[in-house]
Amino acid sequence: MTCRMLTLQHAGEWPEQSQWLRARHDPGKDVEDAVTRIIAAVREQKDDALIAYTRQFDCPDFDLPLRVSEQEIARAAFQVSVESREIIAEAAANIRAFHEAQREKSWFLTRPDGSILGQQVLPVDAAGLYVPGGKGGNTPLISSLLMTAIPAQMAGVRRLVVCTPPRRNGSINPHILAAAHLLDIDEVYRVGGAWAVAAMALGTPSLAAVDVIAGPGNIYVATAKRLLQGTVGIDMVAGPSEVLILADSSAQAAWLAADMLSQAEHDPLASAICVTDSRRLADDLQLEVQRQCPSLPRSEIASRALKDWGAIVLTPDLKTSIAVANMVAPEHLEICTRDPWDVLPFIRNAGAIFLGQYSPEPVGDYFAGPNHVLPTLGTARFSSALSVQTFCKKTSILGTSKAFLLQNRQSIAALARLEGLEAHARSVEARV
User: Fold this and answer.
1) Which among 109, 209, 397, 432 is placed 20 to 30 Å from 136, CA to CA?
2) Structural fold of domain 46-234
3) How many H-runs (helices) and E-runs (strands) does the chain carry?
4) Which pLDDT does position 2 carry in this prediction?
């Protein structure tokens, strides 16, 4: 297994040298056409479409009810080990503490003329949380449930809906249900894929529609969210996972190789890139990746991802490395340099930043507290991590006084007439 090696003389060479990465951005017309058909089927056939797709892709004998009973959720909490429950609870506490700090308050300003202006912050009424099923439900993505549900709860959302694919026998992995029980979530559905997203957006007899859908998923799930945005709010359209490591000669090649492989094992489309100004580190890292990869249970996936979408990029200096990192705008950015905090002020674009040799990306994936649902494919240039704000809406409040209207009526009417909106002008003038 090899990982491509690139050498840059200056940052301006990166756009040309990185052409190979652009193929990750296009899901292809076949995917969009398939998802369009799925959405249409759910809109017209509702629960029948959910059952048909679930039988086709997940559970051949699937049937109603779609919703997992509260008794089954409660039983699951005792089917997993005490150790697992404690770890889930500890991770949840860390995530809750971080997102509690994100809460925003409504605010108001009072003008001298008696006008009151402000902003009201309210949660949406219902949020849909998509939790991927993993390998046939045998690798439950517990962290995805924690990372989507807890910010919604901190926002104050009253109704939380969890959709996750069933296993082949129609059941949900007990670890997912145990986490739902820990979070006091009782609305869990045995349905996944693009049809689950469509159901949450459009509603069916069994599953009432929600206001916002959040959570990671495969290319079909992401495409469904993109196509339904506007009918429902979404957190983001996330692509395959990615990490960029910014390193100098102080970094440990063995550690960085492990970090690159931790992303590469996600998916054949995952990207892992190391940008460094150290030739020795670049050479050592190439050897370490080759040494470590074969021993992984998912070595075939990791090897393919690194071959297609991985790279070790050698630059002339740290300044050039930083410039490349900002152009990539990665989902995860690890800064493994002598003084990572000195580098931080120069980073403009990243979904999440991991500072120092002891902050590998998996710490954020599972346990530290910051959200792991992050912008990918360069969208960190303008997008943010999933947060409490994802589940909130902000409403402007205006209570202008008579004095304000009298003082400003002529200016308001003049602006209205400049735009050719006479009725707007008369609306103001009628009150004089």
Assistant:
1) 209
2) Rossmann fold (3.40.50)
3) 17, 14
4) 73
